[in-house]
Design brief:
- The structure is a single chain.
- By secondary structure, this protein is of the alpha/beta class.
- The chain folds into two domains: about 5-95, MurE/MurF, N-terminal domain (Udp-n-acetylmuramoylalanyl-d-glutamate--2,6- Diaminopimelate Ligase, Chain: A, domain 1, 3-Layer(aba) Sandwich), CATH 3.40.1390; about 100-315, 3 Solenoid (UDP N-Acetylglucosamine Acyltransferase, domain 1).
- The chain has four helices and 40 strands.
- The strands form six sheets. It has a twelve-stranded mixed sheet with strand order 8-11-14-17-20-25-28-31-34-37-39-40, covered by helices on one side.
- The longest helix has 21 residues, at about 325-345.
- It is flat and about 95 Å long.
Length: about 350
């Protein structure tokens, strides 16, 4: 796709300094700009690159004043960083603005699909599925029976959504996700062998949720595993059966949440965090990367370590962790000296 500087300026409500007909078809960092690319400058530390870049068009702040001749066409805006972000969103919308139904695909006769849909090749849509308007289902995705998908939601390639799953509006589920697989529920029989406990619940994902690639959310044993409005999940996250994640909580990659744990609203959970099952984590909690949570957490706490405790105490303790060998040696020497003095007495 090609855009002229004038078209971009119209989108950003910016002013052009240079050739309004200059065309761009790709994006670049300012220090790596090539002919036909669009870049931006917001950090004064990179000002020098604007005079040497080969990018055809650059977005700059209106406050920027060139010190010498610039060959690149400039689009002047109030905030270059925000404008570039806005342009990325627009570009992404245009790039993914697919419609129609590719062949081959399968849609059950009992399924209902709204307007302006996109159904990619080899997609499977099961019995009694209900899909809203402007939904995009990319190739090789599977939508199980009796599932519901709200308006403006995008299911990227290779996503597997098991039966009875409910997904809200304006969600994005990235490639490789598995939503609604059985929870990890097994019970030993009299011979000591483990027998699977039927998982007959479902998964509910509310509006405005983003789920990163290769993440898994298990269906509930009974009831629902629930991801509330505005939750953002990174790649490769495991959420077990009957977990509830509160609204606007963000969780980084490789975190695992064990069964039946309830996480509050507006929490921030770092990467590789492990959370044990049947816990309650309050609102506005921050858990640092690689922490291990084994007990309930109160509202507003900041935790680190494994098992986790208050981050401030952890940071203080970490000063001593590094000195443990020398501290032990000192204690041993004190004990020897005390024993020697005791014997003398």
């Amino acid at each position: 796709m090609k855009f002229t500087a004038q078209q971009i300026a119209d989108i950003l409500e910016g002013d052009i300094l240079g050739n309004p007909n200059e065309e761009v078809s790709t994006l670049s960092k300012i220090e790596e700009g090539k002919k036909g690319s669009l870049t931006f400058l917001s950090n004064p530390k990179y000002n020098s690159y604007l005079y040497t870049t080969n990018a055809s068009v650059a977005i700059v702040n209106k406050s920027f004043v060139p010190e010498k001749e610039i060959n690149t066409t400039l689009i002047q805006v109030e905030n270059a960083y925000k404008s570039f972000s806005k342009l990325l969103e627009f570009y992404n919308e245009v790039k993914n603005n697919k419609q129609g139904r590719e062949q081959p695909h399968f849609i059950a006769e009992t399924a209902t699909i709204g307007e302006s849909e996109y159904i990619g090749a080899f997609a499977y849509i099961g019995e009694n599925v209900k899909i809203g308007n402007n939904v995009k289902i990319f190739p090789n995705s599977y939508i199980g029976d009796n599932s519901i998908i709200g308006n403006n939601t995008t299911i990227f390639a290779g996503v597997k959504i098991y039966s009875e799953t409910v997904i809200g509006s304006n969600c994005k589920i990235h490639s490789g996700c598995v939503i609604g697989a059985d929870g990890f529920g097994f019970a030993p029989n009299e011979d000591g062998e483990y027998k699977a406990i039927p998982q007959i619940g479902n998964v509910i994902i509310e509006d405005n949720v983003d789920i990163g690639s290769a993440s898994t959310i298990d269906r509930a044993t009974l009831g629902s595993t629930i991801i509330r409005k505005g939750v953002k999940l990174d790649n490769q996250i495991q959420i077990a059966h009957n977990v509830e994640v509160g609204k606007n909580t963000v969780i980084a990659s490789q975190t695992g949440i064990a069964g039946s744990t309830k996480i509050g609203n507006n929490c921030m959970i770092g990467g590789q965090v492990g959370v044990a099952g049947h816990l309650k984590i309050g609102n506005n909690v921050k858990i640092l990367a690689q922490a291990g949570i084994s007990k309930n957490v109160k509202d507003g706490e900041i935790l680190n370590g494994s098992p986790a405790f208050k981050a401030l105490d952890y940071n203080r303790s970490s000063v001593y962790f590094k000195k443990l060998p020398s501290i032990v040696n000192r204690i041993n020497n004190i004990e020897k000296e005390f024993k020697s003095q005791k014997e003398e007495l």
